[in-house]
Design a protein that fits this description.
The chain has 164 residues and is mainly alpha-helical. The chain has helices spanning 3-9, 12-32, 42-105, 115-131. The protein is rod-shaped and about 140 Å long.
């Protein structure tokens, strides 16, 4: 086919299809060579969104790490308090057992409460208050709450509220 025959044979629709095919072929070749055409800047928008997601993930991971650290510190503190309580309980039990044993062996164990016996009971109360000064009735106990409720002790949570 000669160029004149080709030009005469193609009508307007054929020419448009040939130009379109040439444009597509050119775009594919240029894309293969590394040229990028992004008139709406979509690639940069995708990159910004990916960076934002990565930043949010890092912040979330940091917050999770802080939460785990606080939980671990709380667990250690709770175990320390439990150990202290158990130690107080053991010491109070020993003091009570010693006082009961001494009271049973005393020569005035079966008589009416006298001053020596009252002194022993007061000494035992003082020992218990020394071991657990926040007990009701001890000198260092807080003032009673309203309407004769038991005293408020330092460290008691307010209504079981979560402190943190």
């Amino acid at each position: 086919m000669t160029p004149d025959a080709l030009r005469k044979g193609l009508r307007a629709g054929g020419w448009m299809a040939a130009v379109g095919a040439a444009l597509v072929l050119t775009a594919v070749l240029l894309n293969g060579l590394g040229f990028r055409w992004d008139p709406l800047n979509l690639e940069q928008r995708r990159r910004v969104r990916a960076e934002a997601r990565a930043s949010e993930a890092a912040a979330s991971a940091k917050a999770e790490g802080e939460a785990r650290r606080h939980e671990q510190a709380g667990t250690v503190e709770q175990l320390r308090r439990l150990e202290h309580f158990k130690q107080q309980e053991i010491e109070a039990g020993r003091a009570t057992a010693a006082a009961v044993s001494e009271a049973k062996r005393a020569d005035d164990a079966n008589t009416v409460l006298e001053s020596r016996r009252a002194d022993r009971l007061r000494a035992h109360d003082r020992e218990l208050c020394r071991l657990a000064p926040d007990l009701a009735g001890c000198a260092r106990a807080s003032d009673p709450a309203r309407d004769g409720e038991p005293p408020l002790r330092p460290g008691d949570p307010a209504g079981g509220a979560d402190p943190g």
